[in-house]
Amino acid sequence: MIVVMKRGTSEEAVKDVSGRIEEMGMKAHVIVGTDRTVLAAVGKESETLRQELEAHPQVEQAMPILAPYKIASRETKPEPSTVTVKSLKIGGGHIGVIAGPCSIESESQIFESAQRVKESGATGLRGGAFKPRTSPYSFQGMKEEGLKLLQAAGQETGLATVTEVMAPHDVDLVCRYADVLQIGARNMQNYTLLEAVGGVDTPVVLKRGASATMDEFLLAAEYILNGGNQQVILCERGIRTFESHTRFTLPLATVPYLQERTHLPVVIDPSHGTGVASLVPPMCLAAIAGGCDGLLIEVHPDPTHAVSDGPQSLTPEAFDDTMRRGHQVAAAVDRKLG
Amino acid sequence: MIVVMKRGTSEEAVKDVSGRIEEMGMKAHVIVGTDRTVLAAVGKESETLRQELEAHPQVEQAMPILAPYKIASRETKPEPSTVTVKSLKIGGGHIGVIAGPCSIESESQIFESAQRVKESGATGLRGGAFKPRTSPYSFQGMKEEGLKLLQAAGQETGLATVTEVMAPHDVDLVCRYADVLQIGARNMQNYTLLEAVGGVDTPVVLKRGASATMDEFLLAAEYILNGGNQQVILCERGIRTFESHTRFTLPLATVPYLQERTHLPVVIDPSHGTGVASLVPPMCLAAIAGGCDGLLIEVHPDPTHAVSDGPQSLTPEAFDDTMRRGHQVAAAVDRKLG
Amino acid sequence: MIVVMKRGTSEEAVKDVSGRIEEMGMKAHVIVGTDRTVLAAVGKESETLRQELEAHPQVEQAMPILAPYKIASRETKPEPSTVTVKSLKIGGGHIGVIAGPCSIESESQIFESAQRVKESGATGLRGGAFKPRTSPYSFQGMKEEGLKLLQAAGQETGLATVTEVMAPHDVDLVCRYADVLQIGARNMQNYTLLEAVGGVDTPVVLKRGASATMDEFLLAAEYILNGGNQQVILCERGIRTFESHTRFTLPLATVPYLQERTHLPVVIDPSHGTGVASLVPPMCLAAIAGGCDGLLIEVHPDPTHAVSDGPQSLTPEAFDDTMRRGHQVAAAVDRKLG
Amino acid sequence: MIVVMKRGTSEEAVKDVSGRIEEMGMKAHVIVGTDRTVLAAVGKESETLRQELEAHPQVEQAMPILAPYKIASRETKPEPSTVTVKSLKIGGGHIGVIAGPCSIESESQIFESAQRVKESGATGLRGGAFKPRTSPYSFQGMKEEGLKLLQAAGQETGLATVTEVMAPHDVDLVCRYADVLQIGARNMQNYTLLEAVGGVDTPVVLKRGASATMDEFLLAAEYILNGGNQQVILCERGIRTFESHTRFTLPLATVPYLQERTHLPVVIDPSHGTGVASLVPPMCLAAIAGGCDGLLIEVHPDPTHAVSDGPQSLTPEAFDDTMRRGHQVAAAVDRKLG
């Protein structure tokens, strides 16, 4: 940690700060500059101490040097992690493709979705049974009944199923039916939920919050990892910015940035990332070329009659075309789609 | 709802869309313009229908006309709501002042905090027992033990107590000890939690999510109101923007904007809104002059030894000075502080 | 234009507004809804009228239906435009590659840069002679001397040269030496400069401002087009968001979004878009797969001794490797790189 | 400057970096930590060197310690600067009030505006003659004819006149007519324009760019100061964020933040900062209580017929009421309005 003292600080204040650093088991190096005195604190960093020092009236700022996440870091585990569930392979040269409707609406809808995405090469099936909805007056999902339909559709097609869990008390229930849990963007910092999924064995897709920094995202993953569940898949699904022509702004540089810092696989959700069906196929191809480990794509047999997210859902035909082109792009970057 | 068709759309597509609008119980007016055909759908709007129509391949956009929230709207209840708990009055010309430490750390710390903020004119006491922390390695709060200390400090001073609840299964526990529940910014769209606090009688301070729009904020309140709990206090605590010289960006225009649209009282948290103790007093005064119904301020007997949020906590002396000046500003806008 | 009246508006106010609409040569349709009265104004829209109506005390909002840009619109010119200068082809299946250093620093530096990027397959040479620098104390560019060196390096290699112009009074000077003008992001709304480059024949790369919306971006292009210069190339170079791990946030969905609305070619600048050299190659590949018409890439023979933008500049070796992989990705999407 | 080396960096790389630091006339302190080696470079910092080091393949990051602006800094000039032109006093306990229409539209409009705002207590008159407009098809201002009208209205009322200059070649012209120049938000980083106004004696209101950081803002001021013009007034007019219910987001914490770091006065423009007339009065009061040195307010005799910015312009009556309440708030914080 680097502690910058205010201009004209007293020797006493410097002693105060260095004393506090040493009290916490770190070593303090004092560097007297031309305009400022700076202390370098060597040893195990702590955010609590950093805040404490920054609250000192003579301290201008206290900056961390080390990344705050540990288990998620590539420094802890240099080789990339992969997640494999049934036919779904994420990482290790495989780009997993999880496709399906936003919400599970009926038996025929989820079965037709599963069939069609499977035919086009998907390896995972998504479908929401517990739906976080902005308005209390919107459709909230079919809940357990939906989970049953999803499981059946997964079993019929052999696709790994992925579905959201919204509350700690539902984790066990969802685990009974689904192959992979999803934590939605709005719950990325719902710590009791993160702790709950950290306590099970089912892999977890953790979506980045719409205004989460990279450190916050990796620390959210750290909650799950720290709970014991090592199968965490990070998902970039777009951030909230001033742009309003897309639902969110999709920053694909997240993929290589995270891959430099964490061993966890990184998947992209271009459906929420853009919110506009016509923009989804080019962003799928861009994500593949950019090195992602997987895709999460909303596909609906009839988007104009979807109960949710119709405007951003691909038709099965558009999905098929995207997969066809995606295979070629994947091959161009020496990876395998699906 | 206004539906704009794409350029050169067919008559058939217009019929399709108007048919679907009428199917849903609305009346469709078709307006043929020079460049575009537009449909005005008159009747009860539905977000589901809007999305459905926007997913139509011949529709360019579908725009809502009406606000999506109902119970929170001033159109439903024109007169402002107030919340009164013990000495704490929020709204109706009273600016409630809820002050205290970020975390409850010990008996002496919370009792000294309570005593000092009470002496300076606070009417509520804040203090966190369940702490949502970015890192799993940070102090997570004293939990039930902390709640007991908070309750005792509240009883001794007569201050209404305000504390965060993080999980649906903790709502009953927190209600047993606290006068007012707080939903943190990270949980603003934790819908199972909103539903849980919607089912109790204790007033709720709902913090705006760091990237929540006004509609999303009011719809989150709507979840609680719809559950039966009418005592909801909205809290602006800063949004995430590109600004990095403050922890968040505090948009005070939230206050008059919300007051035009909702009857719910609006309070400001300048501590999180700035993250810097020296910026808190001027932002308190600005919020008072801007018409807020309350303030939520972090005050710690010794900020440099706080376990959390030290850099943004006021000393009791700084808080006292802020209150003294705040009374004058409140009087200038015909309101009463505390 | 759609005008939404406030709740409970008077008939008189509706007459006022419809009268004003008809006065301006449009036709007004009044639609009386259950909660609101809405007017649809049919005819040539005007932003001035829209603002005027929105300022009416009984009007809640006035929303435009038509895009505000005209010459830039695909509705005006459905087939995509291309720009060809010497070996540089942008659009029409060709992905132009403009590479080179941030600043022209010396004869040897720009000649070596030109030679190396040419060998790797670039078709354009970038290099700044007039440098917009955040600080007045930073290197401001070699100015005319730099332009001469750039021209000479372009002539030797046959590469088309691209360089920034910062002031209206420099446009003629820069046109004498360069093949393509660049308007920097900070000048995207410098309208006197846009008008000045609208008056010459030299093609213009117009960079998106860091907080410009799509409409603002296209209207900036419209200034140039309206001045008579039809060779405008749009460049996405990243937007300012809360993300701080990259210099800017690069939203690649800009490419397909713009391609749906304008005939102008769209190029990507992943160097400024990320600010981090290691993230540039994957974002180049992503941009190619996502359908861009060109790339603008900072390459420096010795980035650790660059006077500006070293951290985001590729070495010639890294650029060569990127081009090699880029050719394969371009082929996978049926396009030609360089 | 603090340079953090990558994990497992070689001794040779550390020597490289420390050698380069000493070459540039700074002293390098090497601190070997448990996980990282850090170098503290003591002496005159340079952004060029910082970037150079950050481009080194073994360097993780290079962080500046000192503020990059010098003349604008309170460390250079501790006492606050004030600007006085005719009756307009900005700073030193005086809150200057510059009011008037967005655009000068006609003789009667600007004279009536001047008269009305003067009667209500304004000390400056704003009015645009050169208008930066998003669309080339919008009204572009009355130019020199407008300047003449503004000057005449200023002379009649004794108000100091403030008007925008958009191009370096217009600076002399505008200086002939106006008392204070304004640099618009879109031109905050138009460096040739900043240099041009740095060369004259007329005071300058410099508006913050919609996505400018504090350092960028102060460095833009530094361009003017460095040119010799010491009368710079900083103006916060709102930033671009995800919020769409207001035209921009107005971060009032800018006022105390800047006042801690610079001696330059800080004024607030709540008209552009909100874009909504009803939100302007509370934000005026908030700005006054928050410690601003001045206000820039759009007032139009008839906002519903304004050629620009009608929705955010106050009527003379609303302005008068705001001033009346503003005086009381100013008195409460020991300052004088107007």
From TrEMBL, chains A, B, C, D:
Gene that encodes it: aroF_1
Keyword Transmembrane included in the entry's annotation: no
Principal EC category: transferase
Lineage of the species this protein comes from: Bacteria, Pseudomonadati, Planctomycetota, Planctomycetia, Planctomycetales
Entry protein name: Phospho-2-dehydro-3-deoxyheptonate aldolase
InterPro entries from the UniProt entry: Aldolase_TIM, Class-I_DAHP_synthase, DAHP1/KDSA, DAHP_snth_FXD, DAHP_syn_2
The EC number(s) this enzyme carries: 2.5.1.54
Keyword field contains Glycoprotein: no
Biological processes annotated in GO: aromatic amino acid family biosynthetic process
Pfam families (UniProt xref): DAHP_snth_FXD, DAHP_synth_1
Domain spans labelled DAHP synthetase I/KDSA: 87-329
Residue ranges constituting the DAHP synthase ferredoxin-like domain according to the UniProt record: 1-66
GO molecular function terms noted in the UniProt entry: 3-deoxy-7-phosphoheptulonate synthase activity; aldehyde-lyase activity
Keyword tags: Transferase
